[in-house]
Design a protein that fits this description.
187 residues; single chain; Arc Repressor Mutant, subunit A
Amino acid sequence: MEKLMIYSSPIGRLTLSGDGTSITGLWIEGQKYFGRTLEIQNREKNGCGAADDDVPSVVFRMAREWLNAYFRGEQKEISFPLMPKGSAFQQSVWGILREIPYGETITYGAIAKMLSDRQGKSSMSAQAVGGAVARNPISIMIPCHRVVGTNGSLTGYAGGIEKKIRLLTLERVDVERFFIPKKGTEL
């Protein structure tokens, strides 16, 4: 069964889940789909927010060290396993998210094009990609905050637009070139 760890970050409380060898989830408090991939017993037992006291596993220590460096503005490779739970399509989208370099952004359309090219298809739906990005169960470490709309919109972050802006700013992305839409998903 998965264990939970709470991490206090500059963008709010983060809840991490792990199976002892891998990180299986990382959610920002209050985000859409919070704890969606946790085992039901764990969700009920821990209320998706209470930390287990007996979880000083190696993977949690490594995750804490990585988060400490990340929030200091340091670019650091993840040296521990991430095991998000999802469909084959979601896994392929999350794989592309992991390829987005620190401090850079990509559009939903560009991810759809990459997927269609890799799968030998003529096209792929950017909306389907957006759905998979929104359901990323390991926020920040699998950097869904680096995905923006083709028109420069900052829409689409389950953790909230303000947190997306803070994460991009931390990575020294020029957020002035983007805009916050008046309506849309995940605002």
